Each structure stands twice: as C-alpha cells, then as structure tokens.
Amino acid sequence: xxxxxxxxxxxxxxxxxxxxxxxxxxxxxxxxxxxxxxxxxxxxxxxxxxxxxxxxxxxxxxxxxxxxxxxxxxxxxxxxxxxxxxxxxxxxxxxxxxxxxxxxxxxxxxxxxxxxxxxxxxxxxxxxxxxxxxxxxxxxxxxxxxxxxxxxxxxxxxxxxxxxxxxxxxxxxxxxxxxxxxxxxxxxxxxxxxxxxxxxxxxxxxx
Length: 207
What we know:
alpha/beta
C-alpha cells in the first residue's frame, strides 16, 4: 500500500498513513476526469437568461390599420418585433444545461483525480487542523510553513475557526469531505487533508 507522512500544523512529522491503493494509487483514467469536469461545469450554468417574444409582451393584438389601401406595409399587431416595445425575435430563452454521470463513473473519476494529485506529490495530510481562534494570520502562517499557496483544505466535520480564518485568503477553499469534487481538485492542484477526512473519502470511494 502507498503511504504518506502525517504532519501537525507546525510541519512536524507525527506518523505515517497507509492509503488505499484503489483510491489514491489507481489507474488514472483521463477521459473520466474530463467527463466529470464537463458535467460539473455544465450543471453550474443557471440557464435563466430569457427575453419576451411577441406573445409574451403586453399590448393589443389588434391590427394597427387595415390590410390594404394605406400605402404602407401590412402589419399584424403592435407587439411585433419591428415596433418599439414589441417582442424580441429569436431571443434567448430559459433552458437547462444539466448533464449527468452515473455513480460508478463519477467515483472512478474521483479516484483518478486523487491518484493524480498523490502521484504529483501535491497532497498533504495533517493529524488535525485546529486553530485556537479565528485568525487569518495564523492560518496563512500554517500554509507558509508548508510552502503552499493555492490549495483545497478538506475536513471531516465543521470547523468554524478554520473556515472563518480561511474565507478571505485568496486561492484557498475549505470543503467537507463529502463536498470534494474533481473540478476543484484540478483547479486548486494542492490538497490538504485532515487524517479523518482521508478515511472518510476512502470509505466513500474504495472498491
């Protein structure tokens, strides 16, 4: 089994952790990673942009003048697109961009992304990440000790001091283990896990 060092927040080694090879050291399937990112980004799209067409705008449906004999082009109603205040022709309408991915493929994509991060030595495990108080300065000091600038921080349970200390730090995102996703792993590149969070992720993804 693959192993990784465990540190405290002062970067003192406190032990080693055996990792499940089926989660952190498996075959990297790039096509599944691509699919997972595509699905994630598509499902973030709101698709709420919309305009009113001629049937939706307010106004009379009466002909503005008779069909023939006026010397003007025939008109159906003042809600037509050529009139001020008329409906928009061929404008955008609300739609859904949602895509789906089956559970087996989604988990395989997660395992591939975690294996990639581990093989690139971009993964750090802490025995715990407890701060005595809400302090952005203390949080940044911990990151600087590990020479980490852009990273996900994965925790196993709510940690108010950590979450509030990290919220104003650029390029840092704190997630609970169940919120881990392929897009964020690739976007932030480094991952800091608590030891308990590693076990929680393994429990959810192991074969």
